[in-house]
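Example record for the data management plan.
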Amino acid sequence: MCICLKPIIFKEILMRLLPNINIMFSRLLFILLPVVLLFNTALAQKQQYKVAIVAFYNCENFYDTTNNPAVNDDEFTPEGEKRYNSAIYLDKVGKLASVISKIGTDINHLSNTDGPAFIGVAEIENDTVLNDLVHHPLLQKRHYQFVHYDSKDVRGVDVAFIYNPKYFTVESSKPLFVALPGGSKESRYTRDVLLVKGKMDGETIYVMVNHWPSRLGGEERSAPARAAAAAVCKTQMDEIYQKDPTAKVIIMGDLNDDPISPSITKVLKAKAKAEDVHAGELFNPWVDLYKRGIGTLAYQDAWGLFDQIMISYPWLDKKQDGFFYYQPFIFNREFMVENTGHFKGYPMRTWDGNSYRGGYSDHFPTYLVMLKRVK
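Corresponding structural encoding:
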């Protein structure tokens, strides 16, 4: 997709600055103005940009209805506590598709009807749900493909990478195992980190999709588990930079930590200000939003911003020939917000206990806009 920025028109500005000019000068200005405007037009030709939307979405318990004896998915079956049947499942698929179909398509001056070039997703059970999602009528024209590996998570939920082959080509991928420190969680296993290497408009991009261990059992007790997941990402990023110091890396996911948490500031060493980032380091564009009380999920009437997308130093050069970072967004349209009950104002969730609320997810998706000059 391409966009263009409108040139500045000088006539109104000049007239506002010169409200009391005399008639003679007005006539002179009338003669000179076409020349000024012609010169301005020559200098300020519309700059066109290619647009790439990079997104992440926690899909909240996106299970199929089939019981898998290898994982703890019993409640998400027709016989389970939630009475999770085909009608509920198909409605869930449609709700998620409706959100993904709109991400990044309505940003002021940007024209981007194709939505995300790629989107990382969390809390998906298997290939079945991914297939049904990308082939939904709202998404099928984009011909999305995906990368997914089963992890050892006890709940059977994983992360995945969905991409539009029109904009992104996968070259390689692999799961990165996260070893949990003893005592940090009841379970021995968590979700793997998914590493994908590919090309976006000819540029090599590395993406790590994450769903770090939850705060269940207490934030302090479980913090080492999230630090372990962060360390896996940091080690992988350092290995990439040893081979290519100019590599473009993206770390995204539901981190179950906020932008100011130690797992991000001390383990990943992500910086809140772009001007403080150096080669080999990460920029976290979500800190300012978080400090302003804006988030992607809510708990006990407090907003958290767990769903983050961080980028490496090479994305920050706005004079480069390749894609550069432009702006972060939380996709939180009105139709996705709960309008009644004790969760009013929160993301409209799929479940309220064992009752099907019919919402979208208990998380809002996030995305970054990347731009590339068209020459």
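Summary line stored alongside the record: The first strand starts at residue 2 and ends at 4.
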